[in-house]
Amino acid sequence: MLWPDSSGCVAKACLLCCDRHRRHAYATHLIEAGVDLIEVQKFLGHHSILTTVRCTHLTDQTKHHALDRINGLMDGFGIAWGKVT
Questions:
Q1: FRET label pair with 85: which of 19, 36, 51, 56, CA 20 to 30 Å apart?
Q2: What pLDDT does 47 receive?
Q3: Which residues of the chain have pLDDT under 70?
């Protein structure tokens, strides 16, 4: 259901909502493509990284991609008692 904005204009409120959704989708796709969160923050013009985090909607694909990257980094380390090689 569409709700009118304060001036009673449904179309204007819908356009603003759609723009916000496009920005959120854009941010999410950038993160999924591996773009650094700080870079996404700059692209969107946010002053706070927390704003950027709130507008990105991470998916299972993002989670798996992150786990693959972390595991790839960790595979390069050798861990022995008392030292990391």
A1: 36
A2: 92
A3: 1-17, 84-85
- Note whether residue 5 is domain-resident: no
Residue 2 in domain: no
C-alpha span between 70 and 25 (Å, rounded): 24
First to last CA, the chain: 59
| Domain count for the chain | 1
- How many angstroms from the chain centroid is the CA of residue 16? 20
Please give the Cα distance from 41 to 48 (Å, whole number).
8
In a domain, residue 67? The reply is: yes
- pLDDT of res. 39: 92
pTM: 0.53
Give the number of other Cβ atoms within 10 Å of residue 31's Cβ. 22
Question: Domain residues for 44?
Answer: 10-84
